[in-house]
Design a protein that fits this description.
The protein is of the alpha/beta class and about 150 residues long. It folds into two domains: about 1-30, no CATH class; about 35-150, Vaccinia Virus protein VP39 (Rossmann fold, 3-Layer(aba) Sandwich), CATH 3.40.50. Helices cover about 30% and strands about 20% of the residues. The strands form two sheets. It has a four-stranded mixed β-sheet with strand order 3-4-6-5, with helices on one face. α3 (about 75-90) links the parallel β3 (about 50) and β4. The longest helix is centred in the middle third of the chain and has 17 residues, at about 75-90. The two termini are about 20 Å apart.
């Protein structure tokens, strides 16, 4: 299942999945800033990929004009949102299964800080966490962490 709050993103994903030959998935509009029980009930998943909204600082090599619009206070706002989204998502993760947390941010507060929160608050264990230094390859920089629920 794939979800987002934006129908346009789900439509775009349909096109990308069709080109990639991916079939047999379903999609739902899900707002992880709210209680998900009304949309997902008690549905549990074998794994969750949370590509979290972020400052986008990892894309600045490709979009340097975005630096001029950057508000340093947005880092804290995004980190709070990321913790909220992860908290809602974890409710639907089967025990012992992975949560893959992804941002295109270079800020520790949005990355390692959120991972620490997930460990301390939700008891998830980090299997691996890396910064993918995209600027070395003319690509976006991303943070990816694989955590497992207990």
């Amino acid at each position: 299942m794939v979800s987002d709050t934006r129908l346009s993103i789900l439509r775009n994903l349909d096109e990308r999945f069709e080109l990639a030959g991916i079939k047999g998935y379903r999609q739902k509009l899900v707002d992880l800033t709210k209680d998900t029980a009304t949309v997902l009930g008690d549905e549990q998943f074998d794994g969750i990929i949370l590509d979290a909204p972020c400052t986008g600082s990892g894309t600045w090599g490709r979009t340097p004009e975005m630096i001029s619009a950057f508000d340093s206070e947005s880092v804290g706002r995004f980190a709070a949102l990321q913790r909220q989204l992860a908290t809602q998502a974890i409710k639907h993760l089967k025990p012992g299964q992975p949560l893959v947390y992804i941002t295109c941010s270079v800020f520790a507060e949005e990355n390692e800080g959120v991972v620490s929160y997930l460990q301390d608050t939700h008891g998830l264990q980090v299997q691996r966490a890396d910064v993918l230094h995209g600027y070395r390859h003319k690509a976006d920089t991303m943070f990816v962490a694989r955590l497992v629920s207990r």
